Amino acid sequence: MLANIISTGSFLYGFNMVRPAEIVDRIIAFAVDVLTPGGGVGESNWWMKGLRNVQRGSQRIEKEMEIRSNLAQWDEEFPFIHHELIVRYAAGFLASTIALTIYDLFRAQKRRH
What we know:
The protein is about 85% helix and about 0% strand.
């Protein structure tokens, strides 16, 4: 009974306290870092390095806009499973799992003594 209360309470807390926009921004930034190619050949002088930085910056912006437009398209196609709602559910599930794990650890220690 107490485990159900802890699970539900922590899920609701995690669901309501998470800021999905910040998490989505960080996930997009990570995805852009992974998907955008790094430095290449031909950066031996300062001018080529500067040119490559501009190219890389434009590639990053283009990739970020592509990901954000895909998210917007997802939200239009599936309004009942909005991407920020998915983040909220995942945060609530994670909070519930962590709270129950900690509760079970305390119960196990209590039984040993």
